[in-house]
Amino acid sequence: MSDIKLISTATTLQEQFGGTLVLRAQPAGTSYGPQTDSQPAPELTFDLLPAVEEPILPGSLILSWGGETYVDRDGVLYKNISSQTNAGVAVGTVDYAAGEARLNSYPAGASASISLLGCLTTNSGFAVTGATWRTPGAPLRPASLQLTVVRADTAGVVVATANNNGEFNGPVVYGTVDITTGIIRVRFTSDPADTSGNSEIPVIPLLLRYNTVLYTSLPLNADLIGLDPVRLPADGRVPIYREGEVLVIHHTAETNLDTPTAGQVVSLARDHQADIEVLDANGVALDPQAYTVDKLLGRLAFADPLTLNDALGVPLVPPLKALDRVEHMTVCTEVQISGVLGINSPLPWDLPPAEAKVSSAVAWGDLQARLYKWFAQKTWSSGAPNWSDSRIGDSTTAQYDQLNYPPIVTNKGAIAGKWALVFTSSSAYQVVEQQLGIVDTGSTGAVCAPINPANGAPYFTIAADGWGLGWAAGNAIRFNTDSCLGPLWICRTVLAGQGTVEDDTFQIQVRGDAD
Fold it and tell me: What order do you get walking across the sheet with 130-134 strand by strand?
């Protein structure tokens, strides 16, 4: 005898007859889960003044409903006003033109009647379609002006902010702000190109609000900054980009070198660099004697043998990386307040916008080092030296032959300084500089070429053959030198306030071209 297994399946049956009669059947054990559906509560609208056609005066409405008191502020209804902070909960809006209060948050089960505790109406000057005014002070900080208006037709609140160019570009608010004078001119329209007036949008002038940041300057103390403040801008700000002046656009790329080997040659991704240097993982520079660079071809060749130390002999931490910087000097043709700059020549490289930088440049024109104000003085007081540019006392019988053996200065080694060659005997002398003191000693029988430690080039060179006879202890030769650099005085302005960064720096680079 075989086993018999009964297989049952719960099935919902439906049969439809002619007409609208439908029969459904299901097993008794089948049930349905609960289903919920949420609907947002509709906005409630109260007609506050059904018999009055005049618009409500903004800020005058106070009403009571459902045990709560509602107050109008700039077109928004608030309840639960705190007596300590004067803050409340925004629960609706007011349509001043239609005389209606609209609540989007309200208690359940409240009666339909309201109590109007306070309300004023007006019959003139309620709406405008444009406005012009001036801020209490100027200049303004760019992009700091924010304007809030309430539409008279829909009671909608519109917030607009001027961009870096001082422009309002809608919607609703169009116009300009002059940050120099603080004058604001705006129109309220849906189509700024329409001059017929059909697109104008009325707003309530009493509810026009704005906020902005004003710059103000305080008189500077001449003793504190070390110069006459009349020569400085009134607000302490100096434009660093001007039309017609020189800009330098530059970008620094990084190439991973891992641990370079002796004699290794690395070809970088680009050529014609302005500078190439090698750094370790901590940003310490590799000794420049350990490698050579070919900026024209963009190549880096390591020495053989190779020691990976810095200039002081301290071992570096791998991996090493090569930083190569390309630069493009050009003329600025346009400066916009938004920060956009125009140039008169294209970039020779495709530089990444997020990494490329631009620097202003002070162009001095053609400059070169010089030696001047040369004279001999019979007596030099070492205890109280006088660095006058004219002789003090008598001259000397002995002289130096500048005609046939002129002193030589170079752009690389010369500095701006006052020098004295003070004789200690008939042939020996000390080389003295006003700020540096005694930098070297010399003799009339040898070339005098004191070395500038900053670059290894001599400050100046004086030939031995130019010295005549008759020099004595106490005699001196005085002269001045100028470097090939233009005079530059840097004044930094720091705004008052709490410091936000620990290290705030800037860099200055001296550039030059030789024909």
Answer: 130-134, 183-189, 172-178, 167-169
